[in-house]
Amino acid sequence: MGAAADPGCFVAFHSRTDVSNIGTWMQTVGAQWFWSKDTPVQRSSLWWQTASLKPTLMLALFAGALADRVDRRWLLIAVQAYGGCRHRRC
User: Fold this and answer.
1) Closest CA relative to residue 11, chosen from 75, 85, 50, 19
2) How much is the pLDDT for 1?
3) pTM of the predicted protein model
4) 80 vs 69, 74, 83, CA distance in Å?
5) What is the Cβ-side half-sphere exposure of residue 66, based on CA atoms within 13 angstroms?
6) CA torsion, points 44, 45, 51, 56, in degrees to nearest 10?
């Protein structure tokens, strides 16, 4: 196994990814809050935009666990094929 399989390396990488995602979410919420105070816009649209980041924040842990348990080549091919079909609207 390589250095990437080291549990300490994984924990450090995963915790930094979580902090980054939370920071991005906080920045988006702050920017939209500031924007909503300056312009008369319905707040429901701002909440929908903010909630759009929640799946990324919540599913990152499960995606990492799936990547650890499934053959990486198969997962990469499946995700790329799905993305290609979504892009082409198959």
Assistant:
1) 19
2) 47
3) 0.40
4) 18, 10, 5
5) 11
6) 180
48-89 pLDDT per residue, tens: 776 777 777 788 878 888 888 888 889 889 888 988 887 777
Q: What is the residue whose two structure tokens read 């290609």?
A: 84
Task: Quote the CA–CA distance of 48 and 51 in Å, as a whole number.
Answer: 5
> Is residue 7 a contact partner of residue 36, using CB atoms and an 8 Å limit?
no
Domain boundaries, the chain: 3-88
Q: From CA 72, how far away is CA 66, in angstroms rounded?
A: 9
CA separation (Å) from 41 to 28, 29, 37, 51, 52? 16, 15, 9, 17, 18
Q: Which amino acid is at 55?
A: P
Res. 21: pLDDT tops 70: yes
Quote the crossing angle between the two packed helices 72-88 and 54-69, to the nearest 10°: 140
CA 16 from chain centre, in angstroms, equals 13
